[in-house]
Amino acid sequence: MNWELLCKPKREGGLGFRDPKAFNLAPLAKQARRVLTEPNSLLSQVLFGKYCRNNTFLQSKPRSKCSWGWRSLMAGKEVLLKSLFMQVGNGEDINFWDDPWLPNSHNHKVPCDKPLYCPFSRIWEVIDPTSKTWNVRLLDEWLPNNMVNDVKEIYIPQGDVKDEYIWNWERNGFLLTILQNHWLITRGM
Known about the structure:
The chain has helices at 3-7, 20-37, 42-51, 68-81, 136-142, 145-152, 177-186, and strands spanning 84-87, 127-128, 133-134, 164-167, 170-171, 174-175. With 189 residues, the chain is mainly α. The protein has 2 domains: 3-83 and 169-186, no CATH class; 86-152, no CATH class. A hairpin with a 2-residue loop joins β5 (170-171) and β6 (174-175).
């Protein structure tokens, strides 16, 4: 019998075995999210000081002589990246063209390249500062119509709320390992 078939839930014709790889990746992804969202924690500061001197945590890759813990965290980060996106707050931390922030897009990124001479690169640059709404004139000028509609559907908070990372399977801001484990198994990770 095929191991993937054995690991499927019983209601889908499998035997409900737990896939050990997915079972191990779920808590690693949860830890990667913790390192990402709590950069001032002691663990994050130590790891960033050792492995992320020249780039961000999301851009980092395992080095040839890195620790087993860092290599494991990088595996968890790769899982996290498959469904991670940024929730728009004040728009200061989100790169419009490169960061995952568009919920209706395939990989949560803008599905086109930055046009030549485009005057904006950050989300805050396309938000009207007085009304806290999207600058539709600017969006219409530089984006395809279907994408403008997707952007206009995104809620902009009225206060000074920081941008934050969100994972698709979150409830009340907490990453649920059980749901993440299910997500990994159903996607054959």
